[in-house]
Amino acid sequence: MNKTLKLTAASTASMPRIIILAVTCVYAFSGLFGHDPWKNDDAVGFGTMWMVAFGNVHDVLFPHISGRDILIGPPLPYWIGGLSIQYLGPLIGDVNAARLTSGIFFLASTSAIWYATYLLGRRKEVQPMAFALGGEPSPKEFGKTIADGAVLIFLACVGLAIRVHEASPFLTELFGVCFLIYGMVRGFDKPLQGGVIGGIAIGIIALSGNLWTAILLGMPSILCITLLHTQKVSKRMLLAFLITTTIMLSIWPLTWKFGNASQEQILQAMPIWWGEYAFKGFINLDSIEFLGINFWSYTWPVWPLFFWGIYVGYKNSSSSWRMAHLLIPGSLFFAQFVLMIFNQDLNEPFLMLLIPPMAILGAFGLPYLRRGLISFIDWLSLLSFTILAGFIWVIWFAKLTGIPAVTANNISRYLPGFVAQFEPIKLIIALIITLIWVLIVRWRVSRAPKAIWRCLVISASGTTLMWVLLMTLWLPTINYAKTYQFVAQRFAKALPEKVDCIDSSFLGNAQLASFTYFTKLPLEDNQTCDFKLTHSSAEAKAAALLNHQLLTLIWEDRRESDKDERLRLYRVTQK
Q: How many CB atoms lie within 10 A of CB 436?
């Protein structure tokens, strides 16, 4: 029992399940459907899933983009996405079917966060002090309230919005991290079940990320099992964890054996699975610089609550380093952070994997927030999201009506050729979500609720509001700016009638995946083709000179939203 924490039952009133489920579903599935694969990760992920769905055994064993026989990464996300495309694609469309898996994994991740936090919040050492005449919350009510707070923190993270709505392998890996935390916590009540869940989670991380990530997250998991349980329980849980992990890690190699993969294919896959290209064994100063610049904005408003949770946790307990709600999420966060400073190609999606342990640990700091700080968070969120919502509505109105003229002219300059169309259904959805925002703000300001998660309602609702407005009012604009569909169609018209193959060696992965999907033309990394499509003319000309080839430009174009990107089609002849 925590003798420094005094809470009444009224301050731990949990949020109705239907509300938190509705908000999570709206956030998860808004923007998943009804648009093209977007540059970059979305197009690459979809292109790989599409190849798995319609390819041969080799394409399934070693997921890659059509025309480029280079392994994209471990197979689990692409297997699941490929199955979704194969069975649901005829009903809802291939792109929608691929992204549906992202929404499902996000919901599963949120559920794992809630249940893990709930189980941690029921534990004896985190319970508020009991009053002489009663009135303190029960362990279950306290656990539910903390769990609601963790989910709201998770949903409030501004950096998640775009990344969790892509056909990306990181959504599967995100679920693996959340499921691992849940397995470690579940082990307190059911050691064998917790060990099995933890082992499955490590396997999911390995089969969607790389082995180094799985190993470094497995180490703190073993540490937590050893330190937080009695010797008898830890042996049972550790045995279940190791056996399940071994079985999960053998799945991909077993498919190589039964799929008759060649030795050369296996040797090419293993370094990528290990992550040898990403982790060179030394700290990367560029990654440290990237974290120093992007960590704070990407994880807002999670990081202040996370560090606050660490501070109050260690301040209020003499044995805090062995308290489950601090050790489990804290050690997993630290392991991932170490991985990131060693990563040679760190980018934003990796930061997404930090959010689950940060949200859980930050939720345990909520009861200690002072009223002044809660008011500051509320008013900052209210002001920020109201201004942003107004900005989105003004831009939408300018696109549609040309008023104000300055704003409309700026849009035309950045997106030449875009014609806005009035879509009444999307307008109705945007109006409804805006009205809900107004009602939530009114409730928060007028009622002054005492629940400890109250300071997160505005932030989580505001993030959801922003995303839904963008995916209704701005979706055609964003799709026009980020898709390759229109330039791919113009490219197809520029080609002669009969083309045997088109060399794509100097296209990026997203470009190749998009052009293959939209045109269904025979693009492949083959420098003997009679045509060459490239976005790097200098590299293409250097390769042609080396191969004694002559290039004749027959088509040049770009996406309207990208002034720097130039796509060129050359006819190739031998000198």
A: 16
Q: Which two tokens stand for residue 4?
A: 């420094």
Q: Is the pLDDT of residue 136 over 80?
A: no
Spatial contact of 245 and 305, defined as CB atoms under 8 Å apart: no
pLDDT at 396 over 60: yes
Structural element, H or E, at residue 551: strand 549-557
- Across residues 554-567, what is the average pLDDT? 87
At 293, list the tokens: 């610049």
Q: How many CB atoms lie under 10 A from the CB of residue 231?
A: 7
Q: Distance between CA atoms of 511 and 557, rounded to whole angstroms?
A: 13
Residue 347 CA to chain centroid, in angstroms?
12
Q: Which of 23, 239, 215, 8 is CA-nearest to residue 130?
A: 8
Q: How far apart are CA 208 and CA 73, in angstroms?
A: 7
DSSP structure string for 478-490: HHHHH--HHHHHH
Q: What SS3 state is found at 569?
A: strand
Distance CA 344, CA 147 (A): 35
The average pLDDT across 329-344 equals 92
- What is the pLDDT of the chain when averaged over all its residues? 89
- H or E element in which residue 502 lies: strand 502-506
How far apart, in whole angstroms, are the C-alpha atoms of residue 406 and residue 389? Answer: 19
Give every CB contact of residue 8 below 8 A, 6+ residues apart in sequence: 135, 136, 137, 450
Compute the distance between CA of residue 25 and CA of residue 21 in angstroms, rounded to an integer: 6
Q: In whole angstroms, give the CA distance from residue 76 to residue 273.
A: 12
Report d(CA 147, CA 456) in Å as an integer: 12
